[in-house]
Design goal:
Helix 4 crosses helix 7. A hairpin with a 2-residue loop joins strand 8 and strand 9. With about 250 residues, the protein is α/β, with parallel strands linked by helices. The strands form three sheets. Strands 1-4-3-5-2-6 form a six-stranded mixed sheet. The chain has a three-stranded antiparallel sheet with strand order 10-7-11, covered by helices on one side. Strands 8-9 form a two-stranded antiparallel sheet. The chain folds into two domains: about 160 residues, Peptidoglycan recognition protein-like (Lysozyme-like, 3-Layer(aba) Sandwich), CATH 3.40.80; about 80 residues, 2-Layer Sandwich (Alpha-Beta Plaits). The radius of gyration is 21 Å and the shape is elongated. The relative contact order is 0.15. The protein is built from nine helices and eleven strands. The structure holds zinc ion.
């Protein structure tokens, strides 16, 4: 069992370093980071992707000896495999090789994570492949060198326990409504959100019209529930869910 969490790259960043959102999700592509620096763990690699990785590269997951961190939803076509098919049909999983981490434990965690993903996404075990399969790169290096033999790794995936803990959501969202033609209408709807729902709300001018922007909600399910409240009370005809990090 491995602890997993999300630390998602913003949509505005993701569109710059992927081929878009139509991943066929047919393969799991296994990598190693090749970064043996102390501290080059899963969180460090997830932060690297959030902060705007300078390399033209992206990957869905990074796993170390403590946890698995997701940077991209699986529908993104990350640039990891080095070929068009590998990128547009693969879910990229990076195993950390930081010197201050326990490599064998990181590999076990990767196997546990992959067991979960292939179940969630209905991917056949024979479609768990090495980065090498697509591009010929010597990756995952230590596995290819036999530190943990590939056949043994696949057996670990097959026998991995199901992950019990759902991902802890950390992503923050806001709701933006469509426009109201009068300030009075916007204020009236905002008043309900504030007093009945207890939300932070802001009224913003948009040309001659007005919109309501909410404070932040943590987790996509939380924000979706909030949108339903707006719809049920007919407080806005149109709503948009916005990544809170994209705010200006
Ligand atoms: Zn690789």
């Amino acid at each position: 069992m491995v602890t997993i969490r999300q630390k998602l790259v913003s949509v505005s960043q993701a569109i710059k370093i992927t081929n878009g959102k139509n991943n066929a999700k047919k393969y799991i592509v296994v990598h190693e980071t090749d970064n043996t620096n102390n501290g080059a763990d899963a969180d460090a690699h997830a932060r690297l992707q959030i902060d705007g990785n300078s390399r033209q590269a992206s990957w869905h997951w990074q796993v170390d000896d403590k946890e698995a961190v997701q940077s991209f939803e699986h529908f993104w076509e990350c640039w990891g495999a080095g070929t068009y098919v590998g990128n547009s049909q693969g879910i990229q999983v990076e195993i950390c090789v930081n010197s201050d981490g326990d490599y064998i434990k990181a590999v076990e965690n990767a196997a546990s994570l992959i067991a979960k993903i292939i179940k969630d996404e209905n991917i056949a075990t024979q479609n768990i492949v090495q980065h090498n399969y697509f591009s010929g790169k010597n990756c995952p290096r230590n596995i290819r060198a036999g530190k943990v033999p590939w056949s043994y790794f696949i057996e670990m995936v097959k026998s991995a326990e199901d992950i019990q803990n759902p991902p802890v959501e950390t992503q923050k969202y806001r709701i933006l409504t469509g426009t109201y033609s009068t300030l009075k209408a916007a204020k009236s709807a905002a008043h309900v959100m504030k007093t009945t729902f207890g939300w932070l709300v802001y009224i913003e001018q948009d040309g001659a019209n007005y919109r309501i922007k909410t404070g932040t909600f943590t987790g996509i399910n939380t924000v979706k529930k909030a949108v339903n409240k707006i719809k049920n009370d007919k407080l806005a005809q149109v709503t948009y869910i916005k990544d809170a990090e994209e705010d200006v």
